[in-house]
Amino acid sequence: MYQRLASNAESPQAASEDLLTADEVAGLLRMTPAWVYAETRCNRIPHMRLGRYFRYRRSAIDAWIREIETGPDPATVAAPNSHARRPRQAPVSQRTA
């Protein structure tokens, strides 16, 4: 029903579209699989969910690495203190009259 391509006959484009497991991504990044899963759960690493499994497109991981290396786009970075919190007030029992 399904045919498997011979690994030596794959084109470079097909190889870049491979789906990787978390273990393979961990090896590629020289990190632990636990780190890859933690980043995946926080949506910090590009991934797709196939049932209960996570898979990672090789081309998306490569693009993500390039994005990290070049840094964020200055137009999309929030201005300093744009989301700064107000200082906390002391509890009522500690306020002076």
In terms of per-residue confidence, which ranges show pLDDT below 50 for 5 or more consecutive residues?
2-9
Mean pLDDT: 79
Helix fraction, binned, reads: 25-40%
Radius of gyration: 22 Å
How are the strands of the largest sheet arranged? Answer: 1-3-2
Shape: elongated
Based on secondary structure, the structural category is alpha+beta
How far apart lie the N and C ends? 81 Å
Q: How many DSSP helices?
A: 4
Task: Report the sheet-strand fraction.
Answer: 5-15%
Q: Tell me about the biggest sheet?
A: 3 strands, antiparallel
H/E element sequence: HEHHEEH
Would you report the number of β strands? 3
Give me a quick take on this structure:
With 97 residues, the chain is of the alpha+beta class. It is built from 4 helices and 3 strands. The protein starts with 11 loop residues before the first helix and ends in a 27-residue tail after the last helix.
How do the strands and helices of this protein lay out in sequence?
Blueprint: H1 12-16, E1 19-20, H2 22-29, H3 33-41, E2 48-50, E3 53-57, H4 58-70
Antiparallel strand pairs: 1-3, 2-3
Structure description:
By secondary structure, this protein is of the alpha+beta class. The chain has a domain at 13-72. The chain has four helices and three strands, in the order H-E-H-H-E-E-H. A three-stranded antiparallel sheet has the order 1-3-2. Helix 2 (22-29) crosses helix 3 (33-41). The longest helix is centred in the middle third of the chain and has 13 residues, at 58-70. It starts with 11 loop residues before the first helix and ends in a 27-residue tail after the last helix.
